[in-house]
Specification:
Blueprint: H1 2-8, E1 14-17, H2 20-23, E2 26-27, H3 28-35, H4 42-50, E3 54-56, E4 59-60, E5 67-68, E6 78-83, E7 87-93
Parallel strand pairs: 1-7
Antiparallel strand pairs: 2-5, 3-4, 3-6, 6-7
Length: 94
């Protein structure tokens, strides 16, 4: 539930995007560098994917062509992004 999710990820940076962005699928580079500013550039996202350093919802994200859509939402609302082993960010859809 939402309360447990927020308790587990307290202190983790949160970013908000429109749910409509995920309806047709959104490019991982656009989502992480433009819509949320989790990363400074698309190149940074590309390097993380290439080096197996990016996880989405605790699974390695290895396909740069894969688009994120509503199927990636946890509790129909959240996406967990992990850079490396310890740096987390939460994307919340509204």
């Amino acid at each position: 539930d939402d309360k447990t999710f927020h308790a587990v990820f307290s202190g983790v940076p949160h970013y908000t995007v429109n749910r409509s962005d995920l309806l047709t699928g959104v490019d991982i580079f656009e989502l992480l560098s433009e819509k949320t500013n989790i990363f400074k550039s698309k190149g940074e996202v590309r390097r993380l994917i290439k080096d197996n350093g990016l996880s989405v919802n605790m699974e390695k994200f290895t396909d740069p062509e894969k688009r994120l859509n509503n199927d990636f939402l946890i509790n129909n609302k959240y996406i967990v992004v992990r850079q490396g082993k310890k740096k987390y960010s939460i994307i919340i859809t509204e």
